[in-house]
Amino acid sequence: MGKGPEASTPADDDSLMRRIAGGDEAAFALLMDRHLARAVALARRVTGSPAIAEEIAQEAFLRVWTRAADWQPQARVSTWLWRIVMNLALDQMRRRRPAALDEVPEPVDPGEDPEAAALRNALGRALEAALAGLPERQAQAVRLCLVDGFSQAEASAVLEVSEGALESLLVRARRSLRSSLSAYAPAEAS
Q1: CA-to-CA distance for 118 and 124, rounded, in angstroms?
Q2: Could you tell me the maximum CA-CA distance found in the chain, to the nearest angstrom?
Q3: Where is the RNA polymerase sigma-70 region domain (predicted)?
Q4: Which residues contact 138 (CB under 8 A, 6 or more apart)?
Q5: Is the pLDDT of residue 164 over 50?
Q6: Does 113-183 carry CATH code 1.10.10.10?
Q7: CATH (residue range 5-95)
Q8: Where along the chain do its domains lie?
Q9: Rounded alpha-carbon distances, angstroms, from residue 60 to 2, 32, 108, 111
Q10: DSSP for 96-137?
């Protein structure tokens, strides 16, 4: 795939968008090369499905191509793209029935202690359940910042909230997750 968003600057992406608005396919291919991997990763984190994530990323880039003239230069291209991906992924999740956690097979490490594997699987299920129990905006903030590695500035732009509001979402989410997962915390040494 591409070199990732760190291989470009906002000014480079701005220039590409102006060219894309004029129908420049080479500029579109370059923008797609730069951002496709992260778009797929973001969609996969939201949907949990690599195949659906690929479809969402393709749809997002199709929208970039068809709506390039609508893009406003005061917004970063990457932020605009992440917002498109996030909206498409959330729309997809609203339309489909969430898969039961028991239906998703866990990878098996033949060298792993069965007790450790059982604990890891239980913790993974508990974490997914705890994330699913968060309000949608808190879960999105956690996934963007703590799972996908977005900076707070990027995540706040994607979620269309201030950085202060994002921090508040993260604080509340961490508090809820800590409470939900307290049974898995290591015992305090006395």
Answers
A1: 10
A2: 68
A3: 31-97
A4: 169, 170, 172, 173, 176
A5: yes
A6: yes
A7: 1.10.1740.10
A8: 5-95, 113-183
A9: 16, 10, 34, 41
A10: SPPPPGGGSPPP--TTS-HHHHHHHHHHHHHHHHHHHHS-HH
**77 close to 14: Cβ distance less than 8 angstroms:** yes
Task: Give the tens place of pLDDT for each residue, 106-154.
Answer: 555 566 677 777 777 777 778 778 888 889 889 889 888 887 778 888 8
Spatial distance between the Cα atoms of 153 and 141, rounded to a whole number of angstroms? 11
Task: Give 99's contacts (C-beta < 8 A, 6+ positions apart).
Answer: 48
Contact in structure between 23 and 65 (CB atoms under 8 Å) = no
Are 82 and 158 a contacting pair, CB within 8 Å?
yes
What is the model's pTM?
0.59
